[in-house]
Amino acid sequence: MNEYEKLLLQNKSWVTEKIDQDENYFIHLAELQKPEFLWIGCSDSRVPANEVTNTEPGEIFVHRNIANLVVNTDLNMLSVLKYAVEVLKVKHIIVCGHYGCGGVKAAITNHHFGLLNKWLRNIKDVYRLHFNELDKYENVDEKTDALVEFNIIEQVNNLAKTSIVQNSWRNSEYPVLHGCVYGLKNGILKDLITIYKNSPMDLLYKFDFDSIIVE
Ligand code: CO
User: Fold this and answer.
1) Fewer C-beta within 10 Å: the chain N or C terminus?
2) Is the pTM of this model over 0.90?
């Protein structure tokens, strides 16, 4: 049996286990998706959204990419964000990074990673914003973890800069934006930042929806 066949087999035993606990488990699950959270996390296999938050399928809408970035030209992320905010009407958006992030660590090297260079550039740009604080670290793992935190905070701010989030804030107090960091070594989620509708933001990034130039 290969690895893939093993996965399919594990799926069967999971189904049996769930039905043993609640015979209507999948019937209820299939009825309606009404998650209150959008999770934007790292693709790292060790940080699965449902497991680390002890939630069930149906509770969190999930988008993951390398180093949990919110890049304002990323059609994939923007599509997920738009659907989550405007259709699912999630109340909370969580950017979750993690200490020891390989993407963040790679970004502070000078290695050439081919296509990935373009993605990691976004993290290098976050480093540049905080180089005063980051340059003082001599230990690369400590420097990585400090940049992991700065990166999460930057990505939460990037969410606040999107017209999708700002448009929702015109008529609602939601979504509330959160940033937290996951500890691979202890399993703890540490809260870093919360941005509300009325939190101060750089005015340059605030859209005036009454002056639409291009729809
Ligand atoms: Co990572």
Assistant:
1) C
2) yes
